[in-house]
Amino acid sequence: MAHHSNKLFLWNNTNLYLGDSFETDFHRHNAVQCCIALKGQLKIKTDLIDNWQQCTTAIIGANISHSIANPDGPVCLIYLEKCSDNYRSIQDYHGLKNEMKHQVLLSTESIPENLIDSAAYLQSLDLSTQSDEDVQFIEQKMIRFRQLSLKLFRGFIEKRTLIDPRVTKLLSFLNQRPDEVIEGKQLANEINLSQSRMQHLFKQQIGVPIRRYVLWMRLRNVIKNVASGVGLTESAHSSGFSDSAHFSRTFKSMFGIAAATVMSKKSGLQTYFCD
User: Fold this and answer.
1) Range of the domain at 111
2) pLDDT per position as a tens digit, 95-150
3) Does the predicted TM-score (pTM) go above 0.90?
């Protein structure tokens, strides 16, 4: 396996980790976790299951204490916002009317070969040495890989649709100010709507509440700044966290892994920011 085989792809409402299994201690997180064994089988245990279970895929609801690993090879871990359209579509498919508070969904169905091949290709890349043309090609591959992964869980497959110009304006406003903490009233004023109407429109169009979108954006911004050489404390503070400890606690609560696991140079993990 290449030295840069571990990858983390970050969107503003989804994270996707691709690489070696790294978490075996019991942990919980606010995001919904969709897990795929790209080779062999996952083993999983929760505080609701006495014995280790084996599976090829697992969906773990938010805030369920669990331990998961793949002793046989690489994994794909998708972290979804629990209010997202992707998660809602998974709930609908499996007939889950309420949030998965007391269960995990395990499957032993075979993983499609094209998904395994796509994962291996992405793992083999060194993302730090790509030309602009290569980057465009990688992004197409990444979008396709995410689609294949979500399809495995019966997740919503995003289609290119026209976004309401007011939401487009909000997204542009937010993304131009990743270091600012902006009140909801100010955002609503930007598009001349009431705060409640703005919140409804954003959720309808983007699939997640605007507060959660902003939190994911702030977490991503800290990682991006640190990757470019800015200190963690400065990056955390400028992105709206009181200090680096506040950022680390928030990161851990969202994804169940320590921020240092992602941001340490020793980890060999390459982070890719998907817009």
Assistant:
1) 7-154
2) 766 555 557 889 999 999 999 999 999 998 887 776 777 778 888 888 889 889 98
3) no
Are the CB atoms for 3 and 265 separated by under 8 Å? no
Cα separations in angstroms, 42 against 75, 112, 125, 140: 8, 16, 24, 28
Distance CA 138, CA 124 (A): 12
CB neighbours of 194 closer than 8 A, spacing ≥ 6?
188
Mean pLDDT of 244-267: 82
Residue 4: what pLDDT? 57
Higher pLDDT pick, 268 / 40: 40
DSSP state of 27: B
Report the 10 Å Cβ neighbour count for 80: 26
* Residues 188 and 86 both lie in one domain: no
Phi-psi category of 229—alpha, beta or left, where left has phi over 0 and alpha has psi -120 to 50?
Answer: left
Residue 235: what residue type? S
- CATH number at 171 reads 1.10.10.60
Paired tokens of 247: 């950022």
Residue 214, SS3?
helix
